[in-house]
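Help wanted!
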Amino acid sequence: MKKNTKNNIVTCGIVLVFFIICSILSSAGILGSKLSGLLIPIGIYIILSVSLNLTVGILGELSLGHAGFMCVGAYVGGVFSILVQDTVTSPIVRIILAIIIGGIAAAIFGFLIGIPVLRLRGDYLAIVTLGFGEIIKSIANNIYITKDINGVHFSFAAPVADIDAASAVDIFKGAQGIKAPQDTTLLLVVIVLMISLIVIMNLVDSKTGRACMAIRDNYIAAQSVGINVTKYRLVAFVISAAIAGVAGVLYSHSLAVLAPKKFDYNFSILILVFVVLGGLGSMRGSVIATVVLYALPEIFRELGDYRMLIYAIVLIVMMLFNNAPYFISIRERIAALPFFQKLKPKKKAVGGESK
Amino acid sequence: MMSFISYLVNGISLGSIYALIALGYTMVYGIAKMLNFAHGDIIMVGGFTVFTAMSTEWCPVWLSVVIGIIVCTVLGVVVEKVAYKPLRNASPLAVLITAIGVSYLLQNVALIIFGSASQSFTSVVKNVAPVTIGGVTISMETIISIVVSVIIMICLTFFINKTKAGKAMLAVSEDKGAAQLMGINVNSTISLTFAIGSALAGVASVLLCSSYPQISPYTGSMPGIKAFVAAVFGGIGSIPGAMIGGILLGVIENLSKAYISSQLSDAIVFLVLIVVLIVKPTGIMGKKINEKV
Amino acid sequence: MSENKTQNTEKETSVMLEVKNLCIQFGGLKAVDNFNLTINKGQLYGLIGPNGAGKTTVFNMLTGVYKPTSGSIILDGLNITGKHPAQINKDGIARTFQNIRLFKEMSVLDNVKVGLHNQKKYSTIEGILRLPRYFKEEKEMDERATELLKVFELDGEKEQLASNLPYGKQRKLEIARALATNPKLLLLDEPAAGMNPNETAELMNTIRFVRDNFDMTILLIEHDMKLVSGICEKVTVLNFGQELAKGETAEVLNDPRVITAYLGE
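Answered by r_m:
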């Protein structure tokens, strides 16, 4: 078997084993309700970070607007589910349809945004993706959808006027967001997560993935061997957006209320932190970093305001430790000690360079 | 018409504050090639310092302002030394994430000390009456913001183009290695850049908190992002670009708040940025750099 | 008219590259002026000249990196003037770069497999779903890439990152990658730069081998006159963007004008 394939199977295995063990512990009551409640968001966050890793790690473009695509998926899927709540009564069918629709909507946004954005490079691309993310959030903040006896009414920037007050039901209430049916289950999240992971890893280990990495490493050389740079950048960007959209659908169906405020640039940056700390281009790294970095602050919730302070310090120290030449040389000296040599094969670093 | 002029003047005032912050972004980017995400939070620290100093009885307003600027300057230099300098040759992403870490750190320290609720900031010119010119009433904060920013921009342009230290900054931003070979102390030049950028952020914090008299641990992040947009808008790395970008951004934001929608003004600001970058991918004043094949 | 046509068909059989009156201007500077070049199929052709003469600029125009201001480039009967680099590669020109441009974070094998990209037809969807064609074509790609690496004695380093290869091997890998695109014409930009005399001698053999075994036409830029006189059948000398001399290698290299251009008055 090829080395890549083996690696990918191990990554999928790690994810499966993690969720199986956690759900066993959870049903046995060992994990406690607070931690059990984290499993669904962790799964969703992993989907987000592997999808962002496709853009940042494989395609090599710094995107700061990933939350925008998630936002599109969350609200398109959520509004769909609310609208069909009475006709499609099976939650599983409903959410699968919502996932498909939300994913397609996010892909369309990815395509439309990708065409202008991918003409830019580096920091300019980063700021424009951030801008698009904020625009999507602002637009969502101003959407009002209300259903009454006469049908569905849509309004922008102001609540819907002229409604039949008696039968009116708010579907999307501007800054307050939506209340989608809570159809997301842990099993579904794990299945979607596995599919996303396999899709991305298969993509990376194919002609398309190699083309993207070639563009990342040297786009002039990539063109010189006949790679259509625009096409492959767009393909990777759209797939990444679509998967973020799917994660958004799961997210909106896992919360009682979801307000657009959630999808600001800080959210995109949070996911980016997972990706960078997990190692660019390493899907396994993204998975591990997401679990660790998402779970830790939640576990230490008792520390109150201090936990985010500790998180910030850990983040800075980790980046320095992994990337500063001074620390790298110290680390290499420590790793060369006989004691650590024995441990080496078991070592699984959550760090910038684990590829 | 009168109201239009008043919106325009207020926009220029807000824009000149953005320009001051954007100058910090652009100078640091030019010299260290990094996006200093923590720059906005330096503003917040400056704001809280002035806020605290003014709330003590013995400290006069002018001294509070000076203390605020000094604290920002020192903080900027310390952050550079501790967090960014060790990463000088690391990947840009590693530096970016570290800057984000610094931003979280500053916000959370402020959160622990001052709590998350907004507190009201007393304007540094609260007892001065607004001025009425030809039927348009302009607040003292607005006038001071514009005047102070213009003076600073003139001084900065003079400093960079006419003094030895300023030319050293230009040289380092052009080519670190060559500058070092010419006998320029790169480390101290970078420190100086951070010091100036952070001092400007300190000034901006006083102006910003006086014009919009509130302060919270998150006060700096949105103006920070917008100033960053302004810097990119004008062509990141370009000092006149940051000034023009900042002022344009402030005007666009204020006019769209007034005439289109206050909720959508941020979206409009970003939309204009996107359009500009698509038409001119390196910003208004940015240089186009062709990769040599 | 009909006479013209017969001439054309004759050309298609023997001429690989026909460059006519090629000019490019950057601002006010004419970097290359009125450049003409005819290369026959199977020829090993040298493009030489002092630094800054415009040699790489000619390569950049031939491969579409720069659009010529005027003039035409005909590759094997097909007009490729002003096309995009990727399209020109598909039409049959592959190149290496003066400052090596490998895919540094990819393995040696994958570098060559990127070169094979356009010869395999499976789509992105087939790749994601792992349909049969994916496995069949990936296997073919692996085999072909390994074969190419063997030619350059790189098959032992298949799994290494390209950036970990020593300099000389990086140059060879670039040639292997270019050959993987199955070109008609191969452009080599200073293939011997930074090599010692032994490595250069070895490289000369490799270039000859490629020409003979891959049925290749080769145009190369080189400063090492030993290499040029050793393998090039014909050369063109560029100086200040203009053609100074062209013809049989030995004659041109002994031309006093060429010697002056290189050594000065």
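OP: Thanks! One thing I noticed: Residues 40 and 186 of chain A are 5 Å apart (CA to CA).
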